[in-house]
Amino acid sequence: MTELPPLREVIGKYGLSASKALGQNFLFDHQLLARIAKVPGRLEGAEVFEVGPGPGGLTRALLQGGASVTAVERDRRCIPALEELDTYFPGKLRVIEGDALEVDAPALFQGKPHVVANLPYNVGTALLVGWLSAEWAPWWASLTLMFQKEVAERIVAGPGTEHYGRLAVLAQWRSTPKIAMNVHRSAFTPPPKVMSAVVHIVPGASPEGVRLKTLETLTAAAFGQRRKMLRQSLKGVPGALAAMESLGIDSSRRAETVTVAEFVALARILG
């Protein structure tokens, strides 16, 4: 394989700059990108789905790890720079110009891909919620995603902490999330105002007898009024107070103290 030109050189060649409107922040640090690409594990022969590759920094690292990459990019300015990578990794990269929120990702793969992405800040949470709400077992093998650090902390938060809420329950009731690494704002061009973190999520078994819709209704009510006692916040959810009593959950508690397992047990009864 011919040696790849430096990423900054490619960006200069195509006159690219990060778009604020698209929530873009480019990463140039090859070693950092290689570390992110290794988070899902061995990629030799694996399929990877990448969202918002921009000029292709992470894409390069994934291809160098041996993956076949399908990349969805909304910014047409970046498409020529991405397509140039086919010269160095023939047949290993498929580039789709489009909006990841509208692309039917499961239809693009025969097996289960790893999703690996430095997500655009303005759509990251919406994409994650969609992937976590998919049919289970999901179409993806794992998620390795860059978020603002505060969002990452909300995904992995435990009960009794300030970041614990609906997103934590959604991420943890049938999958296991962890923060794989923190990334300093200075690593990006341009540097964002906040720190970032890479979250790795592995799917688990879906608890039996629990409907996602019921769990969503419960957590929306409970965390929608998180400062109120459960007897107040859940009184509008039919059967919730009786279900709490049957499980021995004290109705004077607040949502932030209720464990994921307790929310699952309540949803099971209500479902």
Mean of pLDDT = 94
Give helix % range. 25-40%
Q: What name is given to the CATH topology of the largest domain? A: Rossmann fold
**Share of residues in strands:** 15-25%
Specify the structural class. alpha/beta
Low-confidence stretches: none
Output the CATH homologous superfamily of the largest domain. Answer: Vaccinia Virus protein VP39
Please trace the helix and strand order, writing H or E for each element: HEHEHEHEEHEHHEEEHHHH
Question: Helical segment tally?
Answer: 11
The total number of structural domains is: 2
GO molecular function, one term: 16S rRNA (adenine(1518)-N(6)/adenine(1519)-N(6))-dimethyltransferase activity
Catalytic activity: adenosine(1518)/adenosine(1519) in 16S rRNA + 4 S-adenosyl-L-methionine = N(6)-dimethyladenosine(1518)/N(6)-dimethyladenosine(1519) in 16S rRNA + 4 S-adenosyl-L-homocysteine + 4 H(+)
Binding site for S-adenosyl-L-methionine: 25, 27, 52, 73, 99, 118
Subcellular location: Cytoplasm
